[in-house]
Amino acid sequence: MKADKVIHLTLWHGVNPPPNRDVFQKLVDKFNQSHKDIQVDAIYAGQQDQQMPKILAAVVGNASPDILWYNPATTGQLVELNALVPLDEMLASSQIKDEIDPSLYPAVAYQGKTWAVPFATNNVGVFYRPSLFKAAGITKLPKTWAEFREVAKKLTRDTDGDGRIDQHGMVLPLGKGEFTVFTWLPFMWSGGGELVSKDSQNAAGVTLENNAGAIAALQLWRDLITDGSAVLSGPERGYETNDLLAGKVAMQLTGPWTLGEFQASGIDFDVFPIPVGQRPATVIGGENLYIFKSRPEREKAAFKFLEYAASEEFQTELALGTGYLPINLKSRESSKYQEFVRKVPQAKVFLEQAKYARSRPTFPGYNRISDSVGRAVETVLMGKSSPADALKASQQRLDLIFK
Question: Span 118-122, mean pLDDT?
Fold first, then answer.
């Protein structure tokens, strides 16, 4: 193979935490070693909230990457910008199509077409420190919101007797970024709320004002703060788990992507499902791989990488190294992955909770909706507004944009 025949592809991603990035890079290296005619250059482009302006600037300036790793919420916007390659034809002739968990396809579809291949999936649960539960005399895991609030109170303790609280029950995400919204949405759904009124496929259908489930979910989070049971994360750093690892907090909302980090730390940890308001709920997380329009031969080469990333081998290695749930059904059933679940039973909580998981909207304007929801959560957690008033203000902001 002559050097000038090699197709060099650029892939932008935001894989976190750093140990997960190393796992991903090794898998990319493996692809490059076995495909001499295609070389993928994987570039860490920052946290997803930071990436969006770069992505849009790249699209407008004709400087897009060949492949983009991103959450499904951006699909509609990129389709409207005519930036993406629809993948239905390529998928139709690929064996990978039937190996992908069918429940993930709605999150990569928009206007009747498929725009991405799932990269990995996850959902949100409550990680906790069993040793801290035991020390506080808690023998039963909380299943309802009321029990959750009680447990958080019991876990908020002055452990060294100096009159100052040095262990809080919970950490909640501060900021209006997507991570805050992502971890809050399961509570809104569990409280009986909907983000979008039935059958609406556009941003004008978002109903925040007088949304009883949303008000209840915001009130619960605010109650945890007013009880003194919850502390706020650093601004836009709700995904960092240092305080849970250090035992400064006993519970945190996060997902299976932190399983690798927790295992490596050697501390005691476990997971329970999101406590229930009216119904069980969690949110589908994870990212997809999109192909940007370029030239047919580049697009075909990019799809080869997508097939590899969705394959049983890649998905199993990614899951074992990071804790992400495999999107490939053969991978989930493989003896290697089943052995991993036996060793890391926390992964099972996420696999079982997946049946209650819901995805965020894929239509254009989701980033504006997320920003408005995030503002409401932030103002309530900061004690600047009541849940009903904060949601009303967010609705007014959205109505100005979309109605």
Answer: 94
Residue 1 predicted with pLDDT over 50: no
**Number of continuous H segments (helices) and E segments (strands) in the chain:** 17, 13
- How many angstroms from the chain centroid is the CA of residue 27? 21
For the record, the structure tokens of 305 come out as 């990488």
User: Phi and psi of 276, rounded to 5°?
Assistant: -95, 135
> Distance between alpha carbon 141 and the CA centroid of its chain, in Å?
24
Question: Mean per-residue pLDDT for 343-351?
Answer: 93
Which residue, 331, 330, 105, is CA-closest to 322?
Answer: 331
**Beta 7-13 vs 38-44: how paired, if at all?**
parallel
Distance CA 206, CA 204 (A): 6
DSSP H/E element including 66: none
Is residue 364 within 8 Å of residue 401, measured between CB atoms? no
Mean pLDDT of 264-289: 95
Of the candidates 127, 143, 147, 78, the residue with the CA atom closest to the CA atom of residue 362: 78
**Helix (H, G, I), strand (E, B), or coil: what is residue 166?**
coil
- pLDDT score at 349: 95
Q: Round to whole Å and give the CA distance between 189 and 375.
A: 18
Q: What is the pLDDT of residues 152-187, one digit of tens each?
A: 999 999 989 999 999 999 999 999 999 999 999 999
Question: Could you tell me if 81 and 289 are in contact, meaning their C-beta atoms sit under 8 angstroms apart?
Answer: no
89, burial (CB in 10 Å: exposed 0-12, middle 13-18, buried 19+): exposed
Alpha-carbon dihedral sign for residues 88, 92, 93, 98: positive
Mean pLDDT calculated for residue range 237-265: 94
Which residues fall within 8 angstroms of residue 198, CB to CB, at 6 or more apart? none
Alpha carbon distances (Å) from 355 to 197, 278, 374: 22, 16, 26
